[in-house]
Amino acid sequence: MPSEHARHFVLDPEIVFLNHGSFGACPRAVLEKQSELRLRMEREPVLFLARDLEKLLDGARGELGAFVGADPDDLAFVKNASTGVSTVVRSLDLRPGDELLTTSHAYNACLNALRAQERRGVKVVSADVPFPIRSPAQVVDAVLSHATPRTKLALIDHVTSPTGLIFPVAEIVRALEARGIDTLVDGAHVPGMIPLDLRALSPAYYTGNCHKWVCTPKGCAFLFVRRDRQDGVLPLTISHGYNSIRTDKSRFRLLFDGQGTDDPTAVLCLGDSIRFLESLLPGGFPALMRRNHALAIEARTLLCKTLGIDEPAPGSMIGNLATIPLPDGPAEPLQKALWEKRRIEVPVWSFPSFPRRILRVSAQVYNSIDDYAALARALPSLL
To answer: How far apart are CA 91 and CA 205, in angstroms?
Structure first.
């Protein structure tokens, strides 16, 4: 049986969609709200963009701050988490011989933001984190064993993209801070998947997407910069805020809130997305997070049993994403066969490198266990 909540989404009912983690999916009601905002903008663009937008953004930032546990003035809206990572890395005063630390589970686009600094003589250091994995302590040990006096920044995933693991970022942030190393947390998957309290975590930098597990329209993400680091951060686009003489807002606010003409409607739908998802289950977002986590664990158990393998990570390290090791082989042909022959949308990747490969399933409110049963039926013959 399909999930009773599938009707709220515009996803093709003929496709078994198990890849919410890549780009998200937006509910019909929120898409309708975005259309209304776009019409309002086009009816009087000057009124909307030049007069009304600042207060609208302040309102959206307030709702975001309440959701992620942060002072709204420490948050800037960006298009996606990759933009947030690039913004921070390109703002650093790096010198030849400096090191940028990350892990073997880093998202490729964000890893490339580090690699681009190699032309300045900077070294990118990758701590190898095993998968399958036994405990979060292995992550902490791997990261700290690669931190040196030359480390200027650590880019650490909160929830990894290829393996869907929840990393112990609070412990890592504290340990690196004690060594004088700032941490940029890539929380692309975190908002809406697991609880987030940025005041308690207090990293130097944190970036996250809202179009994934908060289900906003595409183009809604945020960058958190701790107050003592804001003076050193510039947006990728320098615009009017750079020489503004306003004193009613911080320079950080002025730099990031006005970066030229754009479509801000995805950001302005953030509150609508939060309220819509909260309305689906008694208990709101906490209940939704528990429901999706339980479904991901149930799906992983089913798939591991089908393949006759052990579960590759503790359940405590799993949120709404579950990754399954597969027999060695090329990844792309299997993903293509699942899509073309069974109409199952699910990512298959080489990880950590060919010929090893993994399969990652997502669990969102529109999914039911029957979706994963279809995958379990398809895998033996296609493998």
So the answer is: 12
